[in-house]
TrEMBL record:
Residues 3-275 form the NAD(P)-binding domain. This is dTDP-glucose 4,6-dehydratase. Its EC number is 4.2.1.46. The gene is rfbB. The lineage of its organism: Bacteria, Pseudomonadati, Pseudomonadota, Gammaproteobacteria, Enterobacterales. It catalyses: dTDP-alpha-D-glucose = dTDP-4-dehydro-6-deoxy-alpha-D-glucose + H2O.
Length: 276
């Protein structure tokens, strides 16, 4: 595993696999070509699964430069390191090699209807600096296949949730704020819809794609689990009423902590993936 260990990185998340003989960790910036070349030469991978990214939309609005650097320049650097490693491989190993790029459904923009769904042929229409940077990286990956023959695959997933989720994201943020008696901010009227995908389901899908997927194809991975943001927040509050009944001082009901704040610029209204 290669990771820069930025503010959201935490090696304790990998404690359960840290003793495995199949696990190794390198603290490396994916924009550092020399270090990537060293890692490829040392470990000689059969597959690269490229998940490294800056991913928080709010941060991309306040500071887009880091997103361009990591998501665009970093992906380019990964592709070049992978290509120069892959090209001289023995024929059998070269044929089996895969570069799997993990992306987001946010590259498609938003859906304005209630029944339409993203498919693998939906045109790109990114709305935020984050989604634009991921769209750019997707195009680079496909170009390296077409131009250089590097065997790539792309997956676009819906919103993940699950253990070890960094607390800037909606679900862990709401939980931690609620049990601390802090406000639960909801953008606009909270009617934005997201398709929620449990992280272990996503991991299983990624493994299936990298082992069975067709080179050059794009695969959308969704949860068929659409919820309005306000519904997610209210559901968490209701669950905490059962699971954490001893509320912070001054809090009668967790729902009372919900506040509505000004919507963020370019906020997409609805995401939903046709994962059939």
């Amino acid at each position: 595993m290669v990771d820069k260990l930025t503010y959201a990185g935490n090696l304790e998340s990998l404690a359960v696999v840290a003793e495995s003989e199949r696990y190794a960790f390198e603290q490396v910036d994916i924009c550092d070509r020399a270090e990537l070349d060293r890692v490829f030469a040392q470990y000689q991978p059969d597959v690269v699964m490229h998940l490294a990214a800056e991913s928080h939309v709010d941060r991309s609005i306040d500071g887009p430069a880091a997103f361009i650097e990591t998501n665009v320049v970093g992906t380019y650097t990964m592709l070049e390191a992978a290509r120069h490693y892959w090209q001289p491989l023995a024929a059998e190993k070269k044929l089996a090699f895969r570069f799997h790029h993990i992306s987001t459904d946010e590259v498609y923009g938003d859906l304005h209807g209630t029944d339409d769904l993203f498919t693998e042929t939906t045109p790109y229409a990114p709305s935020s600096p984050y989604s634009a940077s991921k769209a750019s990286s997707d195009h680079l990956v496909r170009a390296w296949l077409r131009t250089y023959g590097l065997p790539t695959l792309v997956t676009n997933c819906s919103n993940n949730y699950g253990p070890y989720h960094f607390p800037e994201k909606l679900i862990p943020l709401v939980i931690l704020n609620a049990v601390a008696g802090k406000p639960l901010p909801v953008y606009g009227n909270g009617a934005q819809v997201r398709d929620w995908l449990y992280v272990e389901d996503h991991a299983r899908a990624l493994y299936q794609v990298v082992t069975e997927g067709v080179v050059g194809e794009t695969y959308n991975i969704g949860g068929h689990n659409e919820r309005k943001n306000i519904e997610v927040v209210q559901t968490i509050c209701d669950l905490l009423e059962e699971l954490a009944p001893n509320k912070p001082q001054g809090v009668a009901n967790y729902r009372d902590l919900i506040i509505y704040v000004k919507d963020r610029p370019g906020h997409d209204m609805r995401y939903a993936i046709d994962a059939g």
